[in-house]
Amino acid sequence: MTSAVLTSRHDAVQVLVMNNPAARNAITAELYASLPAALAEAEADPQIGAIVLTGAEGFFCSGGDLRVLGERRDMAPVQRRERLEGLHDLIRAIRDCGKPVIAAVEGGAAGAGVSIALACDMLVAARNAFFSIAYVKVGLTPDGGVTAFLSEFLSRQLLTELCLTGDRITAERMAALGAVNRLSDPGSAQPDAIALAARIADGPSRATARIKTLCRHAHRATLDAQLALEAGHMVDALGDDESSEGIGAFFAKRPPHFAALRRGSDRTT
Q1: Superfamily of domain 5-201
Q2: What is the pLDDT of residues 3-20, one digit of tens each?
């Protein structure tokens, strides 16, 4: 049986490839199980500092398989709801991973594939890639948290337009809207994402995990709640060997050696 997720290692960067190219990497039941497991394995490995998520053979992910979705018409509503939990768990696994996850989008991302891309902490996309939220064209409504992710950087009016028209959004427009961190030449999204991930992986792993948590909560937290969260993490960071190394390196005018501090397991907060 073909693996739903292919893995490869580039020094401290783990690359995960959604592998269903015959269907433009449409989401399968196997992916629901395999991708969270692969993320958990990478998170548990102290030698891995960051993760790149991409799709096989030049396309990121076309979302849900309409043939499978069509079969759910015959199910009771409670059964249809249960099937959605697989997608929800996959999205949460990406969002909650203690290590940074960077999406590398070639070709395009459609439907829940957009949710997967936006659930990542950063996004690198080929200039000719597209994003499509075209549920309305087949009489369906968005899922996978895509409206929540898009609302972080779109006005209500623009979000409504994109969801009701189903028009494709170019990677360049997504970058202008603030959703894409890097635009790459076609075919270069993965190596560019690996280069970005390698830079992050070279940093302090526990501070990185704390910063990821802060950034994930910032857009929906009140100022007081965010101040409290920042304070808690700063207190922990000040007592961590990573800050001792970083501050010592600063005054010694040398690069910090955070990799040497990695232990048998990473501690995330």
Answers
A1: 2-enoyl-CoA Hydratase; Chain A, domain 1 (3.90.226.10)
A2: 999 999 999 999 999 999
